[in-house]
Amino acid sequence: MMKNKIQNRIDELCTLFVFLYHGKEGHVDPLSHTNYLLWFEGEEKTVHSIDDVMNTPFFDGRTLAEIADEIEITDY
């Protein structure tokens, strides 16, 4: 799934977005349009916009935008 498709799907706020990156599980829980929970290998971070979801270097030091073509989506 491309970066824009991932971003649009998360911003629909309909479900947890779960993926594997380098064999490690990560997810984005879109609680509202101003509250998203990022989770990766037991670490959590709350961000407050879809731009922050895509551009916060949280997943092994990289952003979701950077790794979008490298992840294996397991639930969305």
Describe the structure.
This protein is an alpha+beta fold and 76 residues long. It is globular. Strands 4-3-2-1-5 form a 5-stranded antiparallel sheet. 25% of the residues lie in helices and 38% in strands.
Please tally the β strands and state the result. Answer: 5
Average pLDDT over all residues: 94
Count the DSSP helices.
Answer: 3
Could you estimate the helical fraction of the residues in percent? 25-40%
What general form does the structure show? globular
Strand order of the largest sheet: 4-3-2-1-5
H/E element order:
HEEEEHHE
Task: From the structure above, extract its key features.
alpha+beta; 3 helices
Present the secondary structure layout:
Layout: H1 3-11, E1 17-21, E2 24-32, E3 35-40, E4 43-47, H2 50-55, H3 64-67, E5 72-75
Antiparallel strand pairs: 1-2, 1-5, 2-3, 3-4
Task: Describe, in short, the structure shown.
The chain is α+β, with helices and mostly antiparallel strands. 25% of the residues lie in helices and 38% in strands. A five-stranded antiparallel β-sheet has the order 4-3-2-1-5.
